[in-house]
Every structure is written in structure tokens, then in C-alpha cells.
Amino acid sequence: MNLQQRDKRVNWHPYTQMKTAEDAVPIVKGKGVYLFDDEGKQYIDAVSSWWVTLHGHAHPYIAQKVSEQLHTLEQVIFAGFTHEPAIQLSENLLQLLPDNQEKVFYSDNGSTAVEVALKMCIQFAYNQGKEKTKILAFKDAYHGDTFGAMSVSGRSVWTKPFGEMLFDVVFIDTPTSDNLENLKSQIKDIADEIACFIYEPLVQGAAGMLMHHPEDLSELMKFCKEQNILLIQDEVFTGFGRTGKLFAADYLTEKPDIMCFSKGLTGGTMPMGITTSSSEIFNAFLSEDKYKTLFHGHSFTANPLACTAALTSMELLLSKETQEKINLIHEKHKEFSKTLQQHSRVENVRQTGTILAWDFKTEQGTSYFNTIGKFFYKEFLHRGIIMRPLGNVMYLVPPYCIASEDLDYIYDTVLQVLDMKFD
After folding, report:
1. Which residues are annotated as a binding site for pyridoxal 5'-phosphate?
2. 269 & 223 share domain
3. How far apart are CA 169 and CA 155, in angstroms?
4. Do 249 and 329 belong together in one domain?
5. What percent of the chain has pLDDT over 90?
6. Does the residue 65 lie in any domain?
7. Does 267 reside within a domain?
8. Boundary of a domain, candidates 317, 332, 367
9. Total domain count for the chain?
10. Distances (CA, A) of 321 to 85, 188, 401
11. What is the distance between the alpha carbons of residues 100 and 255, in angstroms, rounded to a whole number?
12. Smallest Cα–Cα separation from 105: which of 128, 127, 121?
């Protein structure tokens, strides 16, 4: 029995209709930007394995550091105990964030980082004897798949089975120069009831790589602060260089109260989530009253191995070589986007840093369930490229270690596939 057959017997894959799905591709090895299947075929991982693998697969330096840590301390309860990797990671990360971020809370993934942030904001008001329970979020948002994260994500077929179980959220359009005043008016009418505003800065990934301008977001953030609305900046996707700068925060003039991180945090090595906060948030939980404690935790909170992987990934990220690679990807994407803009089957070409996206023109319209996405996925896979179109939205989010030649091969293949005849 081969790996595909064994997998099919026992595994339930994410975002997959298991009845109609084709057998999963068995990957047996990774090296740099490449993945290899059980028959030896090589694939370029053009989506960083769901946007997490910053420095490529099986990075030897990360492997070395995690192995060293594994022989020293693999796990310890983080309630009442601490350890060097967690302290060092918090110190290093906070130095890179807006200067109002002063405390770090560890969890396991992006969804839980968001859950923690939401609980912080709701209890921030509660601990001060205030009742502010409404949440503000963008339409088409995606913040994760746990119940709180689903609640602040755009309502869709993904969330429909749980609709009555999700808490009410006020959804607004992403800001533009044309709608800002209207958004401010909407918010002002209910500002006293709003605990926080959660948003994906600059790029809404799962929504189809939708992008908005930092100037407009900064103005909206400033207005929310004036209305005493806490700001949760979800940098799970945009963090750690994806936007061309270290964080989307580096494009903004305003500072969030809370920030959420995961995905590229450990360079794709292992799961970890982080929620950072200002001292104002943290201090609202300091009390002789034990019931004002933030009652949240995970068995693997601040796992020493994950902290070590994150520290090493961050060291690589800050290196001159990686920063030059990020700039190379940005510039090559920028040049290729000019070609895409001239293509008759392409519209809405957009780019932020290492993220390049475009829509394939189709009568079905822009939709995650547009069947053309499956066709594109198979065509690219056949040509040795792993891409995961969001329906008719195609995008590239490559690891930073990708070579210029591999990018050129991807670009050439994109044009070949776009020029194919479709039934």
C-alpha cells in the first residue's frame, strides 16, 4: 500500500471535500524552495506552504538550533515557570514592533493569537466596570477558524453552519479616500459600544489578496483611537517581511494596541502564535482581585523548541542576504506585473512587497469556489509548481530564498497557462 492509499484510509485534510478530492501528493523531502514527492518529482513551493515557510524547507541553520535546544529543554509549563528562549524571543520581537508594544502572550497558532486578542479587549473593558462588547471588523475578513476568529471573519458558506452561534460583529468596508468619512460616521454612532476594531493591515489574504492603502488605514486607525476603540492588528499573514517591510505596521503612522502573529513567526518550522499588547492593556489585568486575571493558556505555550525556531528565523530575516532577497522578489514581481497588466485574460493586478496577485477574467466572477481555480492548480502542479489559487484569484507568495531563475520559470509558466485553451 503506497502513501496515498494509506493517507486516504486515515486522514481528513483541511479545506478539502474528501469525497471528490484527488489523492494527496505525498511529499517526502524538502530543501530550500523545493519539495519532492515519493516518485522523486520536484516542485517549486510558490506559496510557502500556506504562507509560512519564509526561508525555505529544512533550513539547516534552523534545524541545527532546534536540535541543540531539543537536547537542552524541550518543554516546560509556562504558568509559574519561564526559560531563556521565550524571554529572548519576546525581547527581540518587541524591539522590532511599534514602541507601544511591551508585553508578549504566547499561544499555538494564528486563530488562537486572535482569540487571545479579542479576550484581552473584552476583558479590558470588563475589568474597568464597562460593558463594551461590540467588535468592528472588515467585510471579507479572515482571522481564523476557531469560534471567536470565525465571528470576526466575513460571513460566508464557510461560517454558515455556525451562524447562530457566532457573536454579532459590525462589518465595514476597507477604507478608501472616497468612503472614509462615511466609515467614520458609521463608527461614531456606536463608538461607546465598541470594544475593539480588528483588521488585516494592507492585505486581506484569504479574501483573495485584497489590498488597501496604508494612508487610508492610518486615518481610520487614528479616528478609532479618538473614539477610544482598541485596535487589534492581525499580522499573522503580513508579518515578517511579506509586505516588503518587516511588518505592515512599518507603513502606518498609527500604532495598534494589540498585534497578532503566527505563520512566518517560526519560519514554518513548527506551530506558534503570539499576541503582543501595550502596557495599558496589560495594566488593566493587574489587580489584587484574582478574577481580573486573563484566564487563557495552552499546554504548549511558549514551547522552547518553537521559541528557538522563531529566534533563528528572525535572525535569518534580519540578515542582509534575506533583506536583499525580499527586495529582489519585490522588484521582479513589480516588473512581471507590467506584463500581466497587458494580458487580455487578466485584471486587477496588485502587489504588496513579496505578494503578487491577479484575477483571471471569467464569467463565473470572482469567487473562492470558481472552478477555474482547480484547473489552474492541476496545471501548475503538472509543471512542477505548487500554487493554490483562491478560485479565479491567482497569487505568488514565495519563500525568500527563491532564486531569480525559479521566479522566471514561474512567470513563464503563468503566461503559458493563461494562454491555454479552455473548454
Report:
1. 110-111, 234, 298-299
2. yes
3. 10
4. no
5. 95
6. no
7. yes
8. 317
9. 2
10. 24, 46, 9
11. 7
12. 121
Claim to verify: residue 288 and residue 361 sit in the same structural domain: no
* pLDDT, tens only, 203-229: 999 999 999 999 999 999 999 999 999
Which residues does the annotation mark as catalytic?
15, 142, 234, 263
Q: Based on C-alpha coordinates, what's the Rg of the chain?
A: 22
Alpha-carbon span 407 to 414, nearest angstrom: 10
User: At 289, which amino acid appears?
Assistant: D
Is the pTM higher than 0.90? The answer reads yes
- Residue 263 is part of which domain span? 73-317
Binding residues for substrate: 50, 142, 263, 297, 388
Indicate the SS3 state at residue 213: coil
The CATH number covering residue 226 comes to 3.40.640.10
**Interval 283-317: pLDDT, tens:** 999 999 999 999 999 999 999 999 999 999 999 99
Residues 354 and 242 in one domain: no
User: Which segments within 215-362 are labelled E, that is strand?
Assistant: 230-234, 258-261, 273-277, 346-352, 355-360
Annotated binding site: 50, 110-111, 142, 234, 263, 297-299, 388
Answer positive or negative: Cα dihedral of 224, 261, 281, 296.
positive
Alpha-helical runs (H) found in 18-152: 48-51, 60-70, 84-96, 110-126, 147-151
How are strands ordered across the β-sheet holding 27-31? 27-31, 34-37, 42-45, 385-386
| 68 falls within a domain | no
